[in-house]
Recover the amino acids of this structure.
C-alpha cells in the first residue's frame, strides 16, 4: 500500500476497502499491521482465513506483539465466556444437540459481545489490548456481526476489507450486512490480480473483466456474459457431451480439480458417476453422519452390523452388489454365512467380532471395507468422520452421536478434507480455497455471486458445463 | 492501588478471615487488642503482593503448624497498572470489588463500581509459593514477578533502614527503575569499580566488625569481606544515602520510618498501597497527628494506606469511616466497621472515638456510667492485682466512659463492634430499667446497686462507720471543710468540726441515706481521682464488709466477669 493510502486510512476512525478476490487483500492487511502503531486485532470468519493470515504474517516476519488473529466466533465466545453474566449467556444451551439449539447457542455470543462493549470498562480492556481492529471478508458479516463492530468502533479505529461480489456466506439464512450502507469511510486502494501472476496472468485479467460485467448485479440488475470469446482460459462443454473420462488425461496434470454445482444431490451424483475419482465435500452440518451415528448408538449385534453396511453404501460403491447376501442374513438376525461364496473372510469377521465392544466391532467392519479394493470411495470424508466419531466416543465414553456432534462442531476438533485431488463441492463450501482447475456446472445456473466465487477459485483453467456460451446471470 | 477485600485461610494465627474495605476511604486504621492478628493481616497483604520469587515460608507460617491445610491468601484490588487490562494479561479476569468466590457466582464488574482483580497466593506443604490472578469464570493465570513488581505495595515495618540503602528490595529500586539512568549508572560504575578498585583496603573493616560482633554477641561464621555484587537486572550493593557525612540509616527510628513512608508513597506517584504496622512507632503525638492528616489529604484520590496502631492518639485522630476493629476468636479474624447505617449512632460513635479512644484498643470493656465509676474500677484493678497477682489488662479488659446519659448508646456501639462488654452503673433512675433489661438480654451483664442508689449512696449505706469517716475526709480534702460543713448543715446531719477535720457521730440508717444523697447531689466524688480514692477505701475495708452486702456481691460478680477465661483466650 502507498503512503498516501495509509494516510487516508489513518485519518479516519473507520475505513472500508473493497478488494476483488485474489487482489492482495491479505497482503494489505499485513501491510497495515506493519505500518500502524501498536497491536492490531485481526478478525475473520473461518479457520482457513485465520490460517492464511497467520501464514502470511509469519512469512513477512511480523512480530506477535503487533497482532492477534482469531475467528470472529472464537473472539466472541472467549469474551462472552469470560463475562457471561454481563453478556447474558445461557450456559444451559448446548451446541451439540438439535440444530435450532446449536443456532441459538452461537447466536447468543453475537448479541452477548455487542452487549459487552456497551460497557465502558470492557472498552477499556479493548483499548489496553489493541490499537486498532481489522476485519477480513466483511461481506460475509451478518447484520449481528456488524452491530458488534459498530459498538467496538466506539473505542478503536476499525478497518474492514471485503468484496461484496463474494458475499454468499449465510448462517441460518440471517441477513448479510449491506455493503453500501456500512457507515464506514470508503478508501480506494490500487489493486492487482496477484493470485494468478505465477499460474495464469491472463486468467487474472479476464476475471477482472468478468467482475466488471457482474458488478451491476449487486444493485439487482440481470447480466448477460459471453464466455465463448476467451478460448484457452475458459473451456465450454455442452452438458450432453461432457465425459469426464475423456478429460482425465488433461485433468491429471493439475494439482487439484474442483467440480462446482448448485445443489447437494448433484454434488453427490457427480461423484457416484465417477466412482473412486471425485470425493464429496461434506457440509459442516453433516446429516448423514448424525443419522447413522444415532443409529449406531442405539443398535447392537446384527442390527448394528447391518446399519454399518447401509452407512458404508453411502460412502463407497459396490457395497450392495458385493455384500448383499450378508445384509440379507443380518436382516434376519442370522450369522449363518456358510453358504455365501463372496468375501468369506468378511463372514468370519462378522462372527468373530460378536464379543467385541460394539464400537470396536463397527470400527473393524469399516476397516475391512476400507482395505478391500473392490469398493470405491465417493464420500471418503463421511467414512473418515464416522471412524473419528467412533474412536472419540470410545475414548470419552459418550454416544457416537454426541461424539459426531463434537468433532464436527468444536473448532478445536474439526478436521478439513480439502486435500482430495478431485473434489466435488458447492460455492459456499469452497470459498477461500484455490484449485488449479475448476469445472462449473451451469446446467442449473448459479447466481452471479456464486458464479464469481466459483470462477475465482481457479488458478489455471476453467471449464463451464453449459448448453450455451451466453450465460444469463441473476443477482 | 487499593485493596477492596481480603480473604485468608490458614495463615499464621488466622484459620480463616474475610474482610472488606470501604470504597469511600483510602485511609484505614486497624485497631484491636493485642493478639487480634492485626499485624498478620498486614503480613498477609505483603505476601500476596510479594514482588519476587523468593518468599521463604516455613511450617510455622501455617495455622497451628498444620501444613496439610494450604495457606491461601486472596486480595481483590483496583487501580492497577493500565497494562493489566490487556486481553493477554488479565483483562478477562476483572471482578467486582466485593465479589465472592465460587463457580457460577457472578463476580463480574458493574458499571458504577471500580474494576478489580484478585491475586491469590497459595502455599502448600511443599512450601512453594504460587501467585495467580483468579476469577470465578476462567482457569487461574500465573502472575509473574515482573507483573507483581508493577504493583506498588510498600511496607513500613521494623526494618525501614533497607529503604535507605540501595538494596535489592529497597523502595529506592522503584525510583531507579522508573528513571532508568540511575540503574544504568550504578551498574556501569559498579562494574568499573569492581574491575579497577582494590577492595582489599575495604577488608580492613572486617577486624572491626569482628570486634563489634564479639562485644554485642554477634557470631560471624567466617571472616567478613567486602564485595561488590552485580546481579542480572538488578544489583545489590552497600551504597547508602547520606546527609552530609551522616548515613540516614543512623537517624532516629521515627525519622527513618517517616522517610521510608515518604519514599514509598512517592515511588508510585501517590498510587501506592502502603502497609504500616504500628504507625506510632518512634513518633511524637504531634508528628503522628500531622502524619495522619497528611495521609488523608495526600490520598483523597489515589492509593491506600492500611495501618495498625496501639495508640489512642491515632484512634482519636481517625474518622469512624477509617476505623476497623479487628477481633480474633478461635482462629477466625473479623474486622468490623465502627460506622453503621444510622447517622445518629455514627455521631455518638465519632464522639466516643474522640473522647474515649483508649477503650477501642481493649478486647473487653467495662462501660462505666461516669468518672466516679472509672475511678472506682481503677481501685478495683489494684485490688485484684493484690489478690490475684495480675491486672485487668492481663485479661484484655479496659474501661470506657459511658458519659452518663449516653451510656447505653455507647455500650450498644461497642457491643455491635464485637467487643465483649459489661456495664457498671447506678440505680438511681427508674427510666433506665428497660434499657438495662435489653442489654442483659443481649448478653451484656449490667452491674448496678440497690435501688435507688448511686455508687456513693451504696457506700454510705453499707460501709462501717470508720470507713465512712475516711470517705467523708476525701471530700473534705478536695472541697474544703467549709463547703462540706455547709452541705451537711443543709441536710441536717450532725457532726463535730475541729479546724479542717469533720467528725461524724453515729448516724441512723436514715441519716446515712441522707448523707449519701448529699454526697451525690453535691458532686463530692465526680472525678476519676476521687472515685479511685473512694474505691481504695472500700477495698481497704473489704474484709469487714458483710458477705451479703450489695457492694461485695456486685464487685464479686464484676470480678468473676473480669477473670472469666472463655472469651479472653488466656
Amino acid at each position: 500500500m502507498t503512503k498516501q493510502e495509509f494516510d487516508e486510512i489513518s485519518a479516519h476512525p473507520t475505513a472500508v476497502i473493497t478488494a476483488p478476490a485474489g487482489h492482495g487483500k491479505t497482503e494489505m492487511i499485513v501491510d497495515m499491521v506493519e505500518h500502524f502503531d501498536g497491536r492490531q486485532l485481526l478478525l475473520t470468519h473461518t479457520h482457513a482465513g485465520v490460517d492464511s493470515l497467520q501464514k502470511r504474517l509469519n512469512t513477512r516476519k511480523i512480530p506477535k506483539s503487533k497482532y492477534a488473529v482469531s475467528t470472529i466466533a472464537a473472539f466472541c465466545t472467549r469474551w462472552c465466556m469470560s463475562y457471561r453474566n454481563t453478556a447474558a449467556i445461557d450456559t444451559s444451551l448446548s451446541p451439540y444437540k438439535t440444530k435450532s439449539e446449536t443456532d441459538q447457542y452461537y447466536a447468543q455470543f453475537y448479541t452477548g459481545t455487542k452487549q459487552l462493549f456497551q460497557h465502558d470498562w470492557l472498552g477499556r480492556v479493548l483499548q489496553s489490548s489493541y490499537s486498532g481492529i481489522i476485519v477480513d471478508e466483511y461481506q460475509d458479516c451478518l447484520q449481528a456481526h456488524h452491530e458488534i463492530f459498530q459498538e467496538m468502533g466506539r473505542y478503536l479505529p476499525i478497518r474492514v476489507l471485503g468484496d461484496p461480489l463474494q458475499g454468499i456466506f449465510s448462517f441460518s439464512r440471517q441477513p448479510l450486512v449491506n455493503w453500501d450502507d456500512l457507515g464506514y469511510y470508503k478508501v480506494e486502494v490500487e489493486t492487482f490480480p496477484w493470485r494468478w501472476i505465477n499460474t495464469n496472468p491472463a486468467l487474472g485479467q479476464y476475471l477482472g473483466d468478468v467482475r466488471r460485467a457482474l458488478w451491476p448485479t449487486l444493485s439487482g440488475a440481470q447480466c448477460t456474459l459471453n464466455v465463448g470469446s476467451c478460448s484457452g482460459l475458459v473451456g465450454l462443454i455442452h452438458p450432453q457431451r461432457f465425459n469426464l473420462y475423456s478429460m482425465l488425461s488433461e485433468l491429471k496434470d493439475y494439482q487439484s480439480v474442483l467440480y462446482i454445482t448448485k445443489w447437494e444431490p448433484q454434488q453427490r451424483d457427480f461423484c457416484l458417476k465417477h466412482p473412486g475419482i471425485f470425493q464429496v465435500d461434506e457440509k459442516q452440518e453433516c446429516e448423514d453422519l448424525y443419522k447413522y451415528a444415532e443409529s449406531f448408538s442405539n443398535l447392537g449385534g446384527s442390527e448394528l452390523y447391518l446399519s454399518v453396511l447401509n452407512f458404508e453404501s453411502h460412502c463407497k460403491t459396490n457395497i450392495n452388489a458385493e455384500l448383499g447376501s450378508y445384509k440379507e442374513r443380518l436382516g434376519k438376525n442370522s450369522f449363518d454365512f456358510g453358504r455365501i461364496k463372496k468375501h468369506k473372510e468378511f463372514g468370519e469377521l462378522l462372527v468373530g467380532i460378536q464379543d467385541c465392544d460394539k464400537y470396536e466391532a463397527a470400527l473393524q467392519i469399516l476397516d475391512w471395507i476400507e482395505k478391500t479394493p473392490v469398493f470405491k470411495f465417493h464420500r471418503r470424508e463421511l467414512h473418515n468422520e464416522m471412524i473419528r466419531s467412533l474412536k472419540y466416543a470410545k475414548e470419552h465414553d459418550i454416544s457416537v452421536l454426541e461424539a459426531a456432534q463434537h468433532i464436527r462442531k468444536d473448532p478445536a476438533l474439526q478436521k478439513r478434507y480439502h486435500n482430495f485431488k478431485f473434489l466435488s463441492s458447492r460455492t459456499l463450501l469452497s470459498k477461500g480455497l484455490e484449485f488449479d482447475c475448476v469445472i462449473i456446472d451451469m446446467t442449473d445456473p448459479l447466481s452471479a455471486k456464486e458464479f464469481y466465487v466459483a470462477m475465482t477459485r481457479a488458478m489455471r483453467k476453467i471449464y463451464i458445463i453449459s448448453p450455451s456460451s451466453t450465460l444469463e446471470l441473476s443477482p | 492501588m487499593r485493596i477492596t477485600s481480603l480473604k485468608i485461610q490458614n495463615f499464621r494465627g488466622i484459620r480463616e478471615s474475610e474482610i472488606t474495605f470501604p470504597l469511600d476511604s483510602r485511609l484505614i486504621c486497624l485497631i484491636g487488642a493485642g493478639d487480634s492478628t492485626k499485624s498478620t493481616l498486614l503480613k498477609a497483604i505483603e505476601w500476596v503482593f510479594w514482588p519476587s520469587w523468593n518468599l521463604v515460608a516455613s511450617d510455622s507460617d501455617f495455622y497451628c503448624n498444620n501444613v496439610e491445610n494450604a495457606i491461601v491468601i486472596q486480595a481483590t484490588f483496583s487501580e492497577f497498572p493500565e497494562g493489566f487490562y490487556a486481553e493477554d494479561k488479565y483483562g478477562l479476569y476483572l471482578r467486582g470489588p466485593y465479589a465472592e468466590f465460587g463457580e457460577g457466582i457472578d463476580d463480574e464488574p458493574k458499571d458504577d463500581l471500580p474494576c478489580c482483580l484478585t491475586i491469590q497466593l497459595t502455599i502448600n506443604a511443599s512450601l512453594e509459593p504460587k501467585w495467580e490472578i483468579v476469577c470465578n469464570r476462567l482457569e487461574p493465570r500465573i502472575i509473574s514477578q515482573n507483573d507483581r513488581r508493577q504493583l506498588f505495595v510498600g511496607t513500613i515495618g521494623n526494618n525501614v533502614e533497607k529503604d535507605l540503602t540501595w538494596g535489592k528490595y529497597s523502595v529506592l529500586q522503584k525510583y531507579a527503575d522508573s528513571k532508568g539512568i540511575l540503574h544504568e549508572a550504578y551498574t556501569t560504575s559498579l562494574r568499573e569499580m569492581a574491575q579497577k578498585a582494590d577492595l582489599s583496603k575495604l577488608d580492613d573493616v572486617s577486624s572491626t566488625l569482628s570486634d563489634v560482633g564479639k562485644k554485642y554477641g554477634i557470631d560471624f561464621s567466617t571472616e567478613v569481606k567486602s564485595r561488590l555484587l552485580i546481579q542480572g537486572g538488578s544489583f545489590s550493593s552497600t551504597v547508602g544515602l547520606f546527609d552530609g557525612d551522616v548515613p540516614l540509616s543512623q537517624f532516629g527510628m521515627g525519622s527513618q520510618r517517616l522517610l521510608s513512608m515518604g519514599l514509598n508513597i512517592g515511588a508510585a506517584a501517590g498510587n501506592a498501597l502502603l502497609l504500616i504496622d504500628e504507625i506510632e512507632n518512634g513518633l511524637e503525638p504531634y508528628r503522628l497527628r500531622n502524619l495522619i492528616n497528611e495521609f488523608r489529604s495526600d490520598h483523597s484520590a489515589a492509593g491506600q494506606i492500611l495501618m495498625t496502631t496501639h495508640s489512642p492518639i491515632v484512634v482519636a485522630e481517625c474518622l469512624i469511616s477509617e476505623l476497623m476493629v479487628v477481633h480474633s476468636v478461635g482462629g477466625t479474624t473479623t474486622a468490623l466497621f465502627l460506622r453503621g447505617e444510622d447517622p445518629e449512632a455514627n455521631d455518638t460513635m465519632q464522639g466516643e472515638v474522640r473522647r474515649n479512644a483508649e477503650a477501642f484498643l481493649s478486647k473487653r470493656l467495662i462501660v462505666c456510667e461516669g468518672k466516679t465509676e472509672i475511678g472506682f474500677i481503677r481501685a478495683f484493678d489494684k485490688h485484684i492485682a493484690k489478690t490475684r497477682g495480675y491486672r485487668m489488662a492481663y485479661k484484655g479488659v479496659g474501661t470506657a466512659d459511658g458519659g452518663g446519659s449516653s451510656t447505653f448508646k455507647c455500650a450498644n456501639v461497642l457491643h455491635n463492634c464485637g467487643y465483649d462488654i459489661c456495664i457498671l452503673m447506678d440505680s438511681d433512675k427508674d427510666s433506665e430499667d428497660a434499657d438495662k433489661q435489653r442489654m442483659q438480654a443481649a448478653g451484656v451483664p449490667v452491674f448496678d446497686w440497690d435501688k435507688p442508689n448511686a455508687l456513693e449512696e451504696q457506700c454510705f449505706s453499707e460501709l462501717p462507720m470508720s470507713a465512712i469517716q475516711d470517705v467523708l475526709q476525701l471530700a473534705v480534702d478536695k472541697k474544703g471543710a467549709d463547703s462540706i460543713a455547709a452541705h451537711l448543715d443543709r441536710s441536717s446531719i450532725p457532726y463535730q468540726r475541729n479546724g479542717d477535720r469533720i467528725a461524724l457521730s453515729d448516724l441512723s440508717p436514715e441519716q446515712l441515706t441522707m448523707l449519701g444523697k448529699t454526697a451525690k447531689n453535691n458532686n463530692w466524688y465526680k472525678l476519676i481521682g476521687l472515685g479511685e480514692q473512694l474505691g481504695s477505701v472500700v477495698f481497704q475495708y473489704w474484709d469487714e464488709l458483710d458477705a451479703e452486702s450489695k457492694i461485695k456481691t456486685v464487685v464479686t460478680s464484676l470480678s468473676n466477669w473480669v477473670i472469666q477465661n472463655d472469651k479472653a483466650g488466656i
Summary: The interface with chain B takes residues 68, 78-79, 81-86, 119-121, 124-130 of chain A (CB under 8 Å).
